[in-house]
């Protein structure tokens, strides 16, 4: 396939290298105009990718949007007029709500979302590290996207397994968002690893967050039991105890976080459903204050 990766950061570069190694024609689209970009991956010789060529964008069968949630709209809008008919657009960011304003403009294209638990880092020499083996779940954001499941899943799975299809991607995205709402803001506020949240006072707060989240999810027509969410949050805290969450790292590096598309999205839906969410609201405000101090 002709594949263009929009956003040459950690996760975009990881997919670029795996898809290149799987035999696809992969090109990159970054913020600058360099006609080629070289990425170093594993023990391989650096891979040279064509970059920032309108012709590559015109020929792409698949565009993978690998920017952060708050960068999605600005990155993709100028690209849409260059996409050929039938080109599939696959989003990979964390959080929810970033794609909604673009769906009408993408109505002629199959639109998919991939949520992944792989971990990746890229250094300033464009050397990519695959820091955590994970799995990827793909689902459709429109009807055209749903028609592509039998093509896209085996193709991605061949490149970076395991990849599975989920007919109810909204539930999968909300499940991930719910866990992120419980863990990410608290690790950033307390400047701690995920495992340090497993103290009685913090767990009591997480339990209260879970009650609010489950009310919102239920009102949105999704399945969520607050006790099960609390149990899952504790499992994730334990399984990732040594990790720093992405929101913690963003605050530490004085970068904008994805809070608006995680807790912020929850608050937006809570407001629409007229559900009070004071515990989540407080965490949201604390992260926004930290962002404002940067
Ligand atoms: N890294 C992981 O392990 C991982 C795992 C799972 C999910 N995710 C999610 O994947 C998303 C991307 O994360 P990441 O870690 O890959 O972030 P990242 O390293 O910051 O990569 C984002 C890339 O997009 C580029 N970009 C931003 N705006 C652009 C534009 N208008 N045009 C072209 N390129 C643009 C950025 O360039 P600049 O540097 O110039 O801004 C950067 O290279 C996030 O939502 C994250 O939560 C990441």
UniProtKB/TrEMBL annotation:
The keyword GTP-binding is annotated on this UniProt entry: no
Record domain Ketopantoate reductase N-terminal: where: 3-142
One Pfam family matching this protein: ApbA
Presence of keyword NADP: yes
Taxonomic lineage from the root: Bacteria, Pseudomonadati, Pseudomonadota, Gammaproteobacteria, Vibrionales
EC number: 1.1.1.169
SUPFAM superfamilies in the record: 6-phosphogluconate dehydrogenase C-terminal domain-like, NAD(P)-binding Rossmann-fold domains
Identification of the protein by name: 2-dehydropantoate 2-reductase
Recorded superkingdom: Bacteria
Described function: Catalyzes the NADPH-dependent reduction of ketopantoate into pantoic acid.
Species annotation: Vibrio ezurae NBRC 102218
Top-level EC class: oxidoreductase
Pathway where it operates: Cofactor biosynthesis; (R)-pantothenate biosynthesis; (R)-pantoate from 3-methyl-2-oxobutanoate: step 2/2
Domain Ketopantoate reductase C-terminal residue range list: 168-291
A biological-process GO annotation: pantothenate biosynthetic process
């Amino acid at each position: 396939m002709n594949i263009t990766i929009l956003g040459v950061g950690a996760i975009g570069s990881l997919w670029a290298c795996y898809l290149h190694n799987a035999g696809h024609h992969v090109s990159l689209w970054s913020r600058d105009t360099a006609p080629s970009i070289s990425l170093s991956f594993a023990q391989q010789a650096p891979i040279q990718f064509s970059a920032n060529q309108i012709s590559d964008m015109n020929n792409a069968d698949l565009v993978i949007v690998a920017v952060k949630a708050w960068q999605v709209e600005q990155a993709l809008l100028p690209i849409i007029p260059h996409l050929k008919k039938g080109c599939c657009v696959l989003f990979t960011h964390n959080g929810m709500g970033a794609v909604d304003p673009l769906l009408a403009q993408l109505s002629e294209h199959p639109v998919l979302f991939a949520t992944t638990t792989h971990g990746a880092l890229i250094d300033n020499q464009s050397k990519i590290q695959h820091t955590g083996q994970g799995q990827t779940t793909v689902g459709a954001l429109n009807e055209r996207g749903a028609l592509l499941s039998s093509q896209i899943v085996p193709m991605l799975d061949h490149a970076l397994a395991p990849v599975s299809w989920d007919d109810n991607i909204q539930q999968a995205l909300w499940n991930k968002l719910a866990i992120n709402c419980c863990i990410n803001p608290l690790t950033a506020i307390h400047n701690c690893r995920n495992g340090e949240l497993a103290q009685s006072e913090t767990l009591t707060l997480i339990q209260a967050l879970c009650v609010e989240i489950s009310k919102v999810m239920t009102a949105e027509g999704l399945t969520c039991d607050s006790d099960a969410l609390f149990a899952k949050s504790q499992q994730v805290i334990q399984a990732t105890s040594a990790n720093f969450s992405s929101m913690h790292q963003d605050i530490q590096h004085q970068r904008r976080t994805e809070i608006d598309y995680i807790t912020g999205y929850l608050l937006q839906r809570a407001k629409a459903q007229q559900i009070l969410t004071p515990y989540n609201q407080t965490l949201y405000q604390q992260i926004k204050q930290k962002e404002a101090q940067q």
